[in-house]
Amino acid sequence: MIGSTLHQKKVLLCPLNWGLGHAARSIPIAREFQKQGYSVDFASDGAPLELLRKEFPTARFFELPGFGITYPTNNIVINVGRKMIQFITALRAEHKVVREIVDQHKYDIVVSDNRFGCYSPDTYNIFITHQVNIMSSSGLLDPAVNIFNHHYIRKYHQCWIPDYPNSPGLTGQLGHDHILPHARYIGPVSRFSRARRPERFRLAAVLSGPEPQRSLLEKQLRQQLSRFPFPTVLIGGVVSEGVPVQREENMTHYPFMTSQELNEVMLESQIIVCRGGYTTIMDLVALGKKAICIPTPGQTEQEYLTRLYEEKRYFLRQEQHDLDLASALERIDAYTGIPMDIEQELMEKAVSDLKEYLPG
């Protein structure tokens, strides 16, 4: 393996563009690499790349081919399957681009967050996922889907799972009871930290995820949040320049916030309204917040996780087509949030242990 021996070790971190969740959870991982003396650059596409530009203004950024997966239907098999040829083509193209980037800029480590083509024969390669066991809506396609999933995960030297090692952890069946020998649990990760703040908002709605479902939910939330007699806030999750903050009755709407700004607003809010994506769940754990979770229609992972957390009385779940925040507030006291703490030690050790695999 070609690697650096005398200069600072270099990491290329490649999050998937499937909403902002993969890029958001890449932030604390990138900061841990930096803390331990690595330089970190990024390769992605679309909004995740723009988010990371704002968080790491001195880093180098590379554009990867996009996958273009959207959620026009409530069936994940149809949503992904209808673009499978495009998906495979983009996977091969991103692999070619990553190899060219590594060859030109001499990276030592490539870290891929759910991008199957981001690895190189000249680097130490790490794949990050909380879905080592992917679930389809009916379960009938699970074996075939996971043959594909595990085939690509095995191309990497390590598979990092951002969860606690002991089952069920936070991911339940998604992240446990697998047959991958090179998997390593790095603990839940979050870009946020807990602190005491005075309460400014009763409800804070934080949007993320692929279109058109993100926009459909934003429209519903704007209508409902503006009717409440107490202060609410809506963060749209759209990385864009020059879009003004808007105020409607008691609701304040921010198109986008940096990690630090979002951390503060969520700390100042009593209840979070959000999707049921795993990155969002880890953020809720980090902040110790109650939440109303609305799974993205057709996204099996979110449907599974939100049902799991509702059964445990952690988070209240509502369907997007039947969203009623007023009724949710009447029932929210029966839910506790997740009574766990995020520990950094597992991730710190995973990064530290990489030194034994690298030359020099």
UniProtKB/TrEMBL annotation:
Coiled coil: none annotated. Pfam families: Glyco_tran_28_C (PF04101). It comes from the Bacteria. Residues 248-323 form the Glycosyl transferase family 28 C-terminal domain. GO terms for molecular function: hexosyltransferase activity. This is Glycosyl transferase family 28 C-terminal domain-containing protein.
